[in-house]
Amino acid sequence: MNDLPHAALRWTLHVLWAATLAVPLVSVLREPSASRWLGVLGVLIMALAYAVAVREGRLRALVVATLVSIPLVAPVGPDELSTWAWIGGGAAGFAPLLLTGVWRWMAAFGAVVLSGLVGFFVTRDHTTYQMIAAAVGATIIAMAGLPTWFAGLLAQARTGREAQAELAVSEERLRFARDVHDLLGHRLTVIALKAELAGRLAASDPERSAAEAFEAQRLASSALAEVRDAVHGYRSVNLPEQLEAVRNVLREAGIRCTVSDVPVHGEGATQLALALREACTNVLRHSHATWCMIDIAEHDGEVRMTVTNDGVAVDPSRQGNGIRGMGERLAAVGGKVSVERSSTEFTVQVVVPA
Hints:
This protein is of the alpha+beta class. The protein has helices spanning about 5-30, 35-55, 60-75, 85-100, 100-125, 125-205, 205-235, 240-250, 265-285, 320-330; strands spanning about 255-260, 290-300, 300-310, 335-340, 345-354. A hairpin with a 2-residue loop joins strand 2 and strand 3. The model has no long low-confidence stretch (mean pLDDT about 80).
């Protein structure tokens, strides 16, 4: 998963919180009396409580710090700066981001009301305090709430894309399992019955027993041939059709896909199609990939397929079962697979004899 959007969101929250505490800090520092240091202490407590709430999820610490800051910060500073109203606005803005359900909006509304009460007892001007708290809270929600919502949608899209890839693999496995069951289920039942009948007739009717045994052997050979045909049909994949299917799947997943290929036939085309299927699954699992380029070219008696995307994959030295199995299949026909990774791209290269 790409952590860049989440890191940007975290930094946005930090900057907004720092901006919220900037005015109270300036205000308490302008206080001529020694009580300024109590105000500074209250602002520091709020900053520390926010860090604890974000990193460790202790929202109670933020609530307690907000209440403690009232006697420390509210009476300090010029009246025209409405010192504590900014802290109340920060609480109103961050409550919907840190809480869930209806409590988030109740907490935000409560912070605005509390700001009005503080303003009434400090300056007898509750309206100004409430307006500042509501404006600051709305600004924080607008600047951080919308990115948070988009981050949630992005996480859901990534989860859906991974589920889509796993579902495609599972459906293919189920299809093959159904085909094998249909082929072998009836034949194996008949073979078992004929083998049992041959055993019973071995002593009383040797000729008929031999005929039943021969029939069981014939059915077994026929079933084996049908299974081999099914496996061959499963493994023999049409490369142009696979290219088109991969392009459609990636585009439906929101990944731009470009394909350039040359006609390939025979066993090489089958191996490339199987490798392409595995590479496509990997791209879908790279939840932050936005583009994919597939290039197939023939040179010096070799056909080279290169699949490149901007998803950051695992370390090439830690290859998964898919890449390892691909390499084993390709080695059987004189081919090979290699994996390359850079800071921005991941490349799978497959080479088979022309």
